[in-house]
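Need tokens for this chain, all 571 residues.
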Amino acid sequence: MIGPFKNIFEQQFKKSNDVLFFFLVFALLTLIYSGCAKQVPPSGGPVDKTPPTVVATIPFDGTTDFKGDELSVTFSEYIDKNSFHNAFFISPVVRNMKFDWSGRTVTISLHDSLKKNTTYSVIIGTVVKDLNNKNKMALPYAFSFSTGDKIDKGKISGKVFDSKPQGITIFIYKNLADSISPAKVKPDYISQSGQNGEYLVTGLGAGSYRVFAVRDKNSNLLWDSENEEIGIQFKPIALADSNNIRSGVDFQLTVMDTSKPALLEATMTDRNHILSVFSKRIDSSKISSGNFSIIDSTDNKTYPVLYVYNKRRKGSNILLEIADSLKDDKLFLTSKNIIDYFGNKSRKEETEFYYNGNPDTVKPKIEKVILPFDKYISFTNPSFILRFSEGVCYGNLATSVQINNEAGENVDLSVSRVNDAEFVVALKKQLHPDEKINLKILMNRICDAAGNKEDSTYEKKINTINDLAFVTISGEALYYPADVKNYVALKSLDKNRKSQKMLIGKNGKYILKQVLPGKYFVWAFSDKNSNGKYDYGNVVPFEFAEPFYFRPDTLIVRKRWPIKNVNIKFK
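Here are the structure tokens for all 571 residues:
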């Protein structure tokens, strides 16, 4: 671009013979062009793994009597603009903001007037990424300013304990009524958790506060109870001018879905099977054939359902098996008290379906043998789950399942129902570590609703787990309340691995046995309602969560290395 200008001024130079004029103008044009060139991050060199940070803000943190209509934030490196837009929060909320970028600095124009004599809190969340390598900010950045001569200096801080804690949105409400839900009202103040789960809220005045941690997937600053996890505070939060800092407001996330399951449709897949579709996942261990009935409206006759089970384990589709007795008439399926995995119970509902006279000729099979330790069972409390391809007669199952030890001796067992296609087989005696047993199922005794059955025997070798695969963890609880039961627990960072807990003794000692290698959070809680489990509280009507306390570091458990002195403080 400079070339054409150079030629023009060379011609001018020849005409005027003014050397000084030529070089001055040429230098000026070069400077202007280079200044207008687009700024880009440098390339080459080692991969940048350093998270971006905020290096300056206007106004400064703690500014009073702010009269401007613009804010600015300067970062340590070039920033992905969209990530900043999703991470910038100002409380109380200001709408109609405009973002203008110049290099590493963004200017936020406030087109709405700020309130008089009000403290504003600005949070820049950790979803901000640098432009070059998409590194996210390690910690949220917060600053406050006031439009009056006084600034509120209240602070609330804490940590979200989760396997993926970064970017959890913190909803802060001032003087929120117990009957108001974060599903319907947006927060007064907002923050986000960093890579290690820590968060900070500043610029808070005197008053009572309600705080929630929400995995706000759609970033609408409302809690979607069906799809988004939430954490509830476990202690009251009241700030005063003389006591305006609250730390340790920590959270664990859980799903608190309060919506009732609904029957959407029913389809007869053959003359012995009806597929019922619900609006959400159904806990088939909490329902049975008595929750359903079939009505022939022509004859005004009711037909029973024989077997009930999930088409997919923990799915929303429930298969019903019936005797071959329906007619090609107008048919209705009725369901009632269907329970989802959050304990919500459906109303009585009815849906029409059409007759399908195709015969069922498929024989039931063993779909899967589910073992508690991947490929092994425990030797202290040996049990496993049998999952069939469809519902089968439970009465014949107990005599059809046989287990022999290595000596060929029969081992006594019991069979209990999960649903009509899934059963728990529990051995009545303790086995030895690394012992082999043989599972045998006489399939010719097991039939479905149509009478189909396999004329064969299913066999499978099963091993108990080796004692050396486990680790023992022991320690002591400190400062625990003596007036309630207290538990220590492990929360695995591997969601496919079961967590475990145990009651802390009166002397504060505990020992956790049969812990598999992996990474764990070690935590403890006070069981205030003595129900033997941790309660996450309730949103509406509001109830505090039970108090809990985490060890600050993740515990890494390795094979054959017992871990002692894993102490935890209840404060």
